[in-house]
Design brief:
Number of strands: 9
CATH topology: Jelly Rolls
Protein name: LuxR family transcriptional regulator
CATH architecture: Sandwich
Strand order of the largest sheet: 1-2-9-4-7
InterPro entries: RmlC-like_jellyroll, RmlC_Cupin_sf
Distance between the termini: 24 Å
Radius of gyration: 13 Å
Strand content: over 45%
Largest sheet: 5 strands, antiparallel
Order of helices and strands: HEEEEEEEEE
């Protein structure tokens, strides 16, 4: 069984986000063309956002560190460390209230 330290990877991604113009960094830790399940660890610095984008389909977001706010036309969700949210099936935006790490889990149609 393969193993990955989300803590270590998260620290690396936060360091990358601090030097990135967009204030974010991400790495897919599970997924690819042969997997229906895709998991991506995302680092997002305080005050930065992933602008409005389409829903990836059936998906959740788990806050591993910090706090974030996910907004759409019909939904407004705030999550902090330990929170798990269901991503709405509509365009939405994710904003970090403080330096944050989130784990995005998506089911992909093959």
């Amino acid at each position: 069984m393969e193993s990955e330290s989300l803590t270590t990877l998260g620290e690396e991604l936060l360091a990358s986000a601090r030097s990135a113009n967009a204030g974010r960094a991400a790495r897919t830790i599970l997924g690819g063309h042969t997997h229906r399940l895709r998991q991506t660890l995302i680092a997002l610095l305080a005050g930065r956002a992933m602008g409005e984008h389409d829903s990836p389909g059936e998906a959740t977001i788990q806050v591993l560190r910090g706090s974030v706010r996910l907004t759409s036309t019909n939904h407004d969700w705030s999550g902090s460390e330990g929170s798990l949210g269901i991503i709405p099936p509509e365009r939405h935006e994710l904003e970090a209230k403080e330096d944050s790490l989130v784990l995005l889990t998506v089911v992909v149609d093959l």
